[in-house]
Specification:
The chain is an alpha+beta fold and 167 residues long. It has helices at residues 8-40, 74-98, 104-127, 148-166, and strands spanning 47-49, 54-61, 130-138, 141-142.
Length: 167
């Protein structure tokens, strides 16, 4: 790890700064792409790129992954999609900040997951829904419509699996 030669307090400060910057970078990028999607895609027909490998389409999603829980009444949807995820993200953040001695890959993975999850929670609190705007696929095999925060969480989970396999 690049910070191993530093005194413990200084090393922890560097890692805490890295964690905070990665979380804020993920939130900022996601919020920026959602703003662009609102401005450019809302009310427009889908845009197909690379022979439908990438499709841009504006959707407001009140549910979770693939619109799960969107039919629940508001107090239950808020519990499942705001309060519980916020509790897990807070626990993850406390763990990351309390144990900054792990591998940089594990730290980056955790911060990426927290940033993506936090950005979607910001949308749910602010607007009651998350803006989704991109899907990927080949032929008839397609993802659901998702956003940059979803990609952050997905890639963060992949990095976390890789980090645990390496240790």
């Amino acid at each position: 790890m690049a910070t191993q030669g530093l005194p413990v307090v200084k090393r922890n400060l560097v890692l805490w700064t890295l964690i905070s910057m990665l979380i804020l970078l993920n939130v900022g990028c996601d919020q920026a792409t959602k703003r662009i999607a609102r401005e450019k895609l809302q009310g427009q027909p889908p845009i197909e790129l690379f022979q439908r490998t990438v499709v841009l389409a504006y959707v407001q999603n009140q549910g979770g992954f693939l619109s799960m829980f969107s039919q629940l009444s508001e107090p239950y949807r808020a519990i499942l999609l705001v309060y519980l995820p916020l509790l897990f993200l807070a626990a993850g953040a406390v763990y990351l900040y309390a144990t900054p001695s792990g591998s940089l890959l594990r730290i980056a993975a955790g911060a990426t997951i927290i940033g993506g999850g936090l950005s979607n929670i910001v949308d749910r609190i602010r607007a009651g829904a998350v803006v989704d705007f991109v899907s990927f696929g080949i032929g008839s095999i397609r993802t659901g419509i998702l956003n940059t925060a979803d990609l952050s969480v997905t890639f963060g989970c992949a990095m976390l699996i890789l980090a645990f396999r390496r240790s």
